[in-house]
Amino acid sequence: MSHLEIKTAFKALIRETSVYKYYIELKENSLTSKGYLDIAKIPELFVAGAGEFLRQSRLKKKLKQKRIAEIIDVTPTQVCAWEKNRSKIPLKSLVKIAKTYDVSKDMIYELINRNKIALKTNLPVRLEKIMEIITYFTPHKLDGTVSLTKCSDETLQKIKDTLNVTLRMKKTENNNNQATINSKELHRYLKTFFQYTKVPKIHPPLTNEVKLWHENGLDLTRAIICPCLQTEGNIKHPNAFYFNGNNKVLHDYFVDAVYYEYNELPTSYLCSDGHVTSYARKATKEIIDEVMKLAGNSKTSPAHEQSIEEYLREPQPHLNYLLNASEIEQKIALRIWTSAEGHTIIRRFKIANAD
């Protein structure tokens, strides 16, 4: 692949869920004209071993250390320390000095590529050197931690061979090993050159009716969301709930209702053998609060190993929210209850005479 092709063509699938596809893509203007990743753009990046290059280049130009210090606004002592490899030099400063010596950034990057100048984590300056492993990295948003998606031992070894980093293994809830890398340099490298995007796989409306009901002003929380959660659903505090069942139409009603009422897509859709649609993120709490306010609860019986007394101390589920609902909202809710529970029983009770 040519450098020009890499500039426009590099986009790779990182992972895929039942709801989203996650991609990594090279940002525009990340490469130099000679195809090097322009690593001088990375904040706070230092290099080691550039002393001999700096000294020889300065002598060729017949410049004093004092003059170089003036150009980049440091002390002559600092320039001396860099030339004798007593301290690391900021890459931005190295590039600035090199420009004074009529040496291009590409020449600096070539020296790094040939390991004549060292980066702390051995970050590749050629895209092709990291393409085989780049799809396994996901930088955290706020700190210097990089997560690795599940991969083979062979891939983990390739990552260690390519980068001078330590892999930290941590047990997850599923008792699987989750590997992470604690490296600010790698984190900044990834955030500087790569764009991370997620593309939905499901696109509401999934049904013909729900969007129309929403446009006509129906309360979809009363008509669909509460009935679904009180039949085949459940709320898992503080910010998770799910709908369960093998009726795909009800799942689609549920997804459409949450989307048009709260602008949220599910976290998972028809998973666990195609029977579970779940929501679990911070924004989900708003929906849970509204459901609890309207319907009291989604639990219509004690949970596993929960006593009746413990259950009764919790907010109790009720259908009062339907008393103030419109007739069409009540009909939709009744359809959902009937479809989810399988049948509806109407009982006649004899009311004793007050006398």
Q: What is this structure's SSE topology?
A:
Layout: H1 3-9, E1 11-16, E2 20-26, E3 46-48, H2 51-61, H3 65-72, H4 76-83, E4 89-90, H5 91-100, H6 105-113, E5 118-119, E6 137-139, E7 145-148, H7 153-162, E8 167-171, E9 177-182, H8 184-193, E10 194-200, H9 210-215, H10 220-231, E11 233-236, E12 240-244, H11 248-262, E13 268-271, E14 276-280, H12 284-295, H13 308-312, H14 320-323, H15 327-341
Antiparallel strand pairs: 1-2, 2-10, 3-4, 3-5, 6-7, 7-9, 8-9, 11-12, 12-14, 13-14
Helix pairs in contact: 3-4, 10-11, 10-12, 10-15
Structure description:
- With about 350 residues, this protein is α+β, with helices and mostly antiparallel strands.
- The protein folds into 3 domains: about 1-35 and about 125-200, Roll (Endonuclease I-creI), CATH 3.10.28; about 40-125, 434 Repressor (Amino-terminal Domain) (Orthogonal Bundle), CATH 1.10.260; about 210-340, no CATH class.
- Helix content is about 40%, strand content about 20%.
- It contains 15 helices and 14 strands.
- It has helices at about 5-10, 50-60, 65-70, 75-85, 90-100, 105-115, 155-160, 185-195, 210-215, 220-230, 250-260, 285-295, 310, 320-325, 325-340; strands at about 10-15, 20-25, 45-50, 90, 120, 135-140, 145-150, 165-170, 175-180, 195-200, 235, 240-245, 270, 275-280.
- A 4-stranded antiparallel beta sheet has the order 6-7-9-8, covered by helices on one side.
- β6 and β7 (about 145-150) form a beta hairpin.
- α3 (about 65-70) crosses α4 (about 75-85).
- It is elongated, with a radius of gyration of 30 Å.
- Residues about 1-10 have low confidence and may be disordered.
